[in-house]
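Ticket #4471: structure export looks truncated?
Reporter: QA, pipeline team
Priority: medium

Steps to reproduce: submit the single chain below to the structure queue and open the exported record.
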Amino acid sequence: MARQFITIPGVGRKGARILALLWRRDDAVAAIEFALLGSTFLLLACMIFELGLILFTQSVMDNALRDAARQIMTNQITTGSAFQTKVCNEVGNLVTNCTTNLKYYVQTGATFSAMTIQTSIASNAFTDGGTAADQLAQIAYSRSTIIPWASTYLHGSNVILSTVAFQNEPY
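Actual output as written to the record:
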């Protein structure tokens, strides 16, 4: 029986033999598998790192807002600049240019249901409540991604928003 070769348009018999030999060889299988799977693994590892940074920043901002709200509750903070300074000192270097990039919104209301939660904060606002007043405090930070190509999946930046509602002490 005559030996049959694969016929590929534009490739002669000699080219077909070379392709058949390459098809049977498995010398570089690990390199090819790594090329296919390694990039996917690297993407996954980088995205896990990016998500970890986002969650860590969220946790630090939550704690900073809670500490600043505690001081509003006891009438130790009565101005927006003092509030921002307290939050920025707590956050540290995690928020770059904290005094300009961190936005805050503190409002007071007759009841908690009368206050509105902001989903994006455009400018800073601080309303000091009186004794036993219901208050809502929010801080927002638009964090850009560390890994440039991750911005494709995270839409360029992430707005991290922390909110706390509380009632002032009767001082």
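Status: closed, not a bug. The export was complete when the record was re-opened. Leaving a note from the reviewer for reference: The helical segments are 13-24, 29-73, 80-91, 98-101, 151-154.
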